[in-house]
Amino acid sequence: MIMLQLFLLLFSFNLQICLGDNEKTEGKMDTNYMNQQAYKSLFAAKRREHIETAEKILHLNDYAKQYKMVEILGETIFPAMKDSKEKLEKANYIPQSSPFPTDKNMQEALGVVLESIPFFGDVLLRLPDITKDVYKRHKKDWVPLFKWGMEFCQNSTFLFTGHHSTQLYLMSQEIGLIPEDPEYENPFRKSSEDPDIKIKLKTKSKKFKKGPKLRTRNEL
Ligand SMILES: *[C@@H]1O[C@H](CO)[C@@H](O)[C@H](O)[C@H]1NC(C)=O
């Protein structure tokens, strides 16, 4: 009789743990996954806005104004990234393996890095001479953050695939993190021979199979 009671007790106890655990894990996974999916749509919308902003800066056609805008942009995003880096590191967030955060503060910190880097890239690729000049003048603060942020984005493979990943590759070449592919050409550089030639930013598909080739300014 005692054995039976013990058995029932253990059994129901185990069953409870199992159900409880399952509910917890599945519920949590779903929330993380749903948050991640929701963020992906938000990211796509933000990317469009950032590209639009970069295009606006490009079309100002006024060197001093463009310079000022790029500087303001950098002075806004780099301190924000620094803050976020601290938060993410404190929470031991690892881009390759951590689940998408459910905490609003952490989501925000993550978003700052995942969005600032490509936004800076939009400007870097369209206004390479100005952006690199501003970047060099702030190199003490910005270079380590930029390198970290680039790695962080590259490691965030749930998000940076396809053209998002191609952009990181182009940025790395433009800023000199990696040697330029012989076929890499940025028509927005002052030194670029003919800004009106159709073939614009090119990448060798051999080295970069994942993403589409960027050929024209419009594809940036
Ligand atoms: C990115 O991943 C590499 C390889 O796992 C790792 O060495 C590096 O620290 C990671 N960087 C960031 C910022 O997560």
Question: What can you tell me about this protein's structure?
Answer:
With 220 residues, this protein is mainly alpha-helical. The protein has a domain of 135 residues. 68% of the residues lie in helices and 0% in strands. It contains 6 helices and no strands. Helix 3 packs across helix 4 and helix 4 packs across helix 5. The chain is globular and about 50 Å long. The N terminus is likely disordered. The site of 2-acetamido-2-deoxy-beta-D-glucopyranose (NAG) has 5 residues, from helix 5. 2-acetamido-2-deoxy-beta-D-glucopyranose binds next to helix 5.
**What order do the helices and strands follow?**
HHHHHH
- Estimate what percentage of residues fall within beta strands: under 5%
SS field, number of helical segments: 6
Major sheet, described briefly? none
* Helix content, binned percent: 55-70%
What would the average pLDDT be, to the nearest integer?
81
Ligand names: 2-acetamido-2-deoxy-beta-D-glucopyranose
Radius of gyration from CA coordinates: 23 Å
Overall 3D form: globular
Count the strands? Answer: 0
* Uncertain parts: 1-23, 195-200, 203-216
The end-to-end span amounts to: 76 Å
Return the structural class. mainly alpha
Descriptive key words:
single chain, 220 residues, mainly alpha, 6 helices, disordered N terminus, binds 2-acetamido-2-deoxy-beta-D-glucopyranose, CC134, signal, Coiled-coil domain-containing protein 134
Task: Give a short summary of the structure.
The chain is 68% helix and 0% strand. With 220 residues, it is mainly alpha-helical. Mean pLDDT is 81; it is low at 1-23, 195-200 and 203-216.
